[in-house]
Amino acid sequence: MASMKHVHLFRRYLTIALTLFQSLISCLFNFPILIKIADSFLSLYFMVFCDLRPVTVDLDDGETTVHFWISGHRRISRPNLVMLHGYGGNSKWQFVHQVSDLSKSFNLFIPDLVFFGKSYTKNADRSVEIQARSIAGGLKKLGCDGRGRGRISVYSISYGGFVAYKMAEMWPEMMEKLVIVSSGVGFTQQEKTAEMTKHSAGLRGHFTRGLRRKYQQQLVLLRDRRDCCSKMLVPKTPMDLRMLVKISTNTGLVFVDWIPDFILSQFIAVMYEKNRQELLELAKNLLEREEAELHVISQKTLIIWGDKDKVFPLEHGYRLQRHLQNSRLEIIKETGHAVNVEAPTTLNNLITSFVLSV
């Protein structure tokens, strides 16, 4: 009898242990705990090694909240540098390769654009203008009002370039210098359509060859060019995320193909799921809106482009430089659209020398 009792007790404890183990595995694979941990370490890195601290600013409209990382100890001798990210995650993940070096030369202001990271608005507007107004409003609350030491220089990449250019146009007194990296500012509707067609066809072809069996059913969904580009900007599946990396880099970051799907799914859950609809609406507004004639801004401007950019071809960088007389173009060799990932040291050196030059 005692022996049977021990057997039943053992089975009970074994069942409990297996249930706990199953729950742990389910948590690791389904709940984005790994990316949450990585995101927390990034926050710690920003605070400890880059002397940055998180600040949340509520704007006067009563609808908008903008989250910033700002220098913990601002120095009068250093100029203010605002860093505006593109699609592809929040500001921490996009600028992790750059903040340590730049924090040694500048008072940094690094916002999450609205609907990215912790920034949010109840406003139904999804235009570039609402982004520009939100960032400018937050900066003014933080003392960057365009007067004296309150002037700023802005480094922007990709989608952030649209926002920065609009800020330069709307508040010229606030912005002293502008750095635009790989941004389609001034793209006509015809050019947008042409690029969307090229990317949708190219990506379908690439993934049909490379991952034809595993993702064949999902490839059928990429027939519409706008659907394809939206999936690129706001990935929903591991395949979508791999597409975004492939099109954004020259090297392709081959290791991404070897990262397990469940980890990529966790990254997508953390970066995109909370505001997925709003991010899609931002992308749709950017891709479909008719652009007016591009305003000629007065700020001294540095334009930086990767010569292998497949998102916005290098020719557009040349054209933007011709449009802005007070500008110069720097080309980084063997680099794609994601210059901040593929050539962060070269990019930092160009930004620093340009902003600090008299």
Task: Summarize the structure in short.
By secondary structure, the chain is of the alpha/beta class. It is built from 15 helices and nine strands. Keywords: Coiled coil.
N-to-C span: 91 Å
Molecular shape: globular
**Low-confidence stretches at least 5 residues in length (pLDDT < 50)?**
20-29, 207-215, 217-223
| Number of continuous helical runs | 15
Strand content: 5-15%
Question: Could you report the average pLDDT, rounded to the nearest whole number?
Answer: 85
Order of helices and strands: HHEEEHHEEHEHEHHHHHHEHEHH
Beta strands, count: 9
The largest sheet is:
9 strands, mixed
Radius of gyration: 23 Å
Estimate the helix proportion, in percent: 40-55%
* Main structural class: alpha/beta
Descriptive report:
InterPro entries: AB_hydrolase_1, AB_hydrolase_fold, Meta-cleavage_hydrolase. Residues 269-300 form a coiled coil. It holds the Pfam family Abhydrolase_1. The chain has 358 residues and is α/β, with parallel strands linked by helices. It is 50% helix and 15% strand. The chain is built from 15 helices and 9 strands. Strands 1, 2, 3, 4, 5, 6, 7, 8 and 9 form a 9-stranded mixed sheet that branches. Strand 1 and strand 2 (64-71) form a beta hairpin.
